[in-house]
Design goal:
The protein has helices at 66-75, 290-293, 343-346, 382-391; strands spanning 26-30, 34-39, 42-48, 57-61, 87-90, 95-97, 108-110, 115-117, 120-122, 125-128, 133-136, 140-142, 176-183, 186-187, 195-204, 206-207, 209-219, 225-236, 240-249, 254-256, 262-267, 280-283, 300-307, 310-318, 327-330, 335-339, 356-358, 363-374. It has 393 residues and is mainly β. β25 (327-330) and β26 (335-339) form a beta hairpin.
């Protein structure tokens, strides 16, 4: 199992009796380095903003139904061969391991980012045999429904087949993130230059829609801010993430140069990639396949694939309120991104949009959605979810 070099966050969750109920409320918990989102009594995601990486990002992010799928795997003979799919990812700093499913005793304190193999689920408590203790489902997400690729800091030294489960490329592709190259020539997408978090505020910590506001500085080689990103992030109980960003030029004029390397992006796990059996990529108009959809503007695209035996999907959505339609950088190897900058790159120079420029103090607003779900686009009502997203202001 790959080593995950990930940091910690604080949470005071206790194990409660009961089953995995239908989720109808989001709870945000802010730690020193991570904001955790739980929905109902299940962990959903972590937003990592201060973990020694080159930018903030969401990782892990889990679709609904993962704990049910994990329980089924643990109770089905012959389903325990893949220990990674039987594992959970700790999303809470200070998550408490307890001696029984309902006890309040603290047997051990765990760290954010630990990967732990489970063997049994009772109610919303998960048994970890290696530690002989129980964890609350609110403190973890199951790898069996984690729809973003985990970080691997031990990149293979030799090239292996793309279909190999160990395949790992483009280490700057981290979960779900927001960045782009060619900001006055700066390479924030490729992580040649950093995006530094300055603040995180929980505006609405709890509700059917929970809201946080983040301020990030996009810096140059001297760590001086060039762009100030102020983003309102709305997390809905249906597992739609609404990322509403304003980028402001703070140290002189800024030019968004033409590039395909951006902007709001997802990297799906290896098993979900289009090159794997059972995967499918489709747009709102029913156009299929990454080759047909690459570089195209369209309201939404759904990237579907299997994790174990279960089908999951990730939909990226372009809000109609953006200053112009964005194009999709969607690949068969698992990259899934959207950007309004780079028409010439996406169209083989058939569309020559001028570079987008901001004078000092000017800003541009960009709003995108990502919806994670079990099943295909039709079963998950992606069209209906997009309609509601598009109607919000």
């Amino acid at each position: 199992m790959p080593r995950l070099a990930l940091s910690a966050l604080f949470s005071l969750c206790v194990i409660a009796a009961g089953s995995f109920a239908a989720a109808d409320e989001v709870l945000l918990t802010k730690g020193e380095q991570v904001v955790t989102a739980t929905i109902g009594d299940e962990g959903f995601l972590a937003y990592q903003f201060n973990v020694g990486r080159k930018k903030p990002f969401f990782l892990p992010v889990a679709a609904a139904g993962g704990f049910t799928e994990l329980k089924k795997r643990l109770e089905t003979p012959g389903s325990n061969q893949d220990q990674l799919l039987n594992s959970v990812f700790v999303i809470s700093e200070g998550a408490i391991l307890r001696s029984t499913p309902r006890s309040r005793d603290a047997k051990e304190t765990l760290k954010f980012g630990e990967l732990l193999v489970a063997s049994k689920i009772e109610g919303n408590a998960i048994y970890i045999p290696a530690k002989d203790g129980w964890l609350s489902a609110m403190n973890v997400v199951p790898i069996a429904s984690t729809v973003v690729r985990l970080i691997n800091d031990e990149i293979p030294l030799v090239k292996i087949d793309k279909k190999d489960p160990r395949y790992y490329d483009h280490p700057h592709h981290k979960g779900i993130w927001f960045s782009i190259d060619e900001i006055n020539g700066l390479k924030h997408w490729a992580e040649g230059h950093n995006i530094v978090n300055k603040s995180v505020e929980l505006v609405t910590p709890k509700g059917e829609t929970a809201v946080m506001k983040v301020v990030n500085h996009w810096v140059n080689e001297k760590n001086e801010p060039v762009l100030e990103e102020t983003s309102t992030i709305r997390i809905h109980a249906n597992r739609l993430i609404d990322y509403d960003a304003t980028l402001k030029a703070v140290a002189g004029p800024v030019t968004f140069g033409h590039t395909k390397e951006g902007m709001f992006a997802v990297r799906v796990p290896n098993s979900m990639r289009e090159i794997m059996a059972g995967a499918h990529v489709v747009s709102d108009a029913g156009v299929e396949g990454t080759k047909a959809l690459w570089g195209q503007p369209t309201p939404w695209i759904d990237y579907e694939g299997k994790i174990g035996d279960a089908l999951y999907g990730v939909t990226v959505m372009d809000h109609p309120g953006n200053f112009r339609p964005s194009r999709y950088h969607v690949r068969d190897y698992g990259l899934f991104a959207i950007s309004p900058f780079g028409d010439p790159d996406y169209t083989n120079k058939k569309v020559e949009t001028p570079p987008h420029e901001l004078k000092q103090g000017e800003s541009v607003q960009l709003r995108y959605g990502v919806y994670v779900h079990p099943g295909d686009a039709k079963a998950a009502d992606v069209a209906g979810t997009f309609k509601k997203f598009a109607e919000t202001k």
